[in-house]
Amino acid sequence: MTAAAHPARLIVLRHAKAAWPDVPDHERPLAPRGRADAPAAGRWLRDCGRAPDLVICSPARRTRETWELAAAELGGDPEVVYDPRAYRGEAEDLLDLLRKVPESRRTVLLVGHRPAVRDLVLLVAVERTDEPSSRVREKYPTSAAAVLALPGTWAQLGPGGALLTAFAVPRGGAG
Asked: Closest Cα to residue 40, out of 143, 150, 125, 119?
């Protein structure tokens, strides 16, 4: 199946709410609210039919915990890659990482950090004034997920090369 017949989909998820204990940034765990919101993100992805076949996740504790809690609700068994560029990288670094995704991967979930995840979505999304685009520009809170459709190949992904089709901030209801 060609990319045109079945456009690739990129889901960009910011980690859930993290706690601020006296540990190095890389080791910060999820806060109680984050432990409730991460499964809600997984349920949202599942209910919308957006299960990934590849997950690229920052190796930071809060992103790993976000993915693990979301995955428990999502089902499936996607390949998971923990890549340090998703921890400290900027939008251009994340874009370079995505350009190397094999074309056989049709839905990729990137779990990362602000500001890089927001900057990536703003970089690759076609500039529009619709509701999802306005919300991304305004704020990219914890547990937020942007869904983008790619009309071309992963290798061709570039500025303005994807269409933002959804933006949600799933919440689990805990404090």
From this structure: 143
